[in-house]
Design brief:
The longest helix is centred in the first third of the chain and has 23 residues, at 2-24. A hairpin with a 6-residue loop joins strand 1 (39-45) and strand 2 (52-60). The protein has a four-stranded antiparallel beta sheet with strand order 1-2-3-6, with no helix packed on it. A four-stranded antiparallel beta sheet has the order 5-4-7-8, with no helix packed on it. The chain is built from two helices and eight strands, in the order H-H-E-E-E-E-E-E-E-E. With 119 residues, it is α+β, with helices and mostly antiparallel strands.
């Protein structure tokens, strides 16, 4: 009985170690230090006559640039997002990825009515 329990405990421990290794090496494995240096921030932006919830995260690449992603939800009709990638402004989808960027900012705009400050 003791040997059977010991064997099950070893199998469970090995399985957990293997699972942890696979999770750690998951889709972001190209950025190995990601788990310890990722930052996340969320807010609600209020352009004229609207609102949208936005989140962004960023992780240093080690060369002064960052990679990360943004997401949004609950946008009022007519509200859209813009992103500034090192000063280059583009309209954004509701979510996306970026890499090799030194400064990434988001703002919310309402068609014909203006935009929030950069966040």
């Amino acid at each position: 009985m003791k040997n059977a329990l010991r064997k099950k405990a070893l199998t469970l421990t090995a399985g957990l170690a293997l699972t942890a290794g696979l999770v750690a090496a998951g889709p972001g494995a190209a950025h190995a230090d990601e788990h310890s240096t990722r930052a996340l921030s969320c807010t609600t932006l209020h352009p004229p006559a609207g609102a949208v919830n936005v989140c962004k995260n960023w992780t240093p690449n080690g060369d002064g640039t960052f990679h990360g992603k943004w997401s949004s939800s609950g946008a009022t009709a007519g509200v859209y997002l813009q992103g500034s990638f090192d000063g280059t402004v583009r309209n954004l989808a509701s979510e996306g990825l970026y890499d090799g960027v030194r400064k990434f900012l988001i703002r919310a705009c309402t068609s014909g009515r203006g935009c929030t400050a950069w966040w």
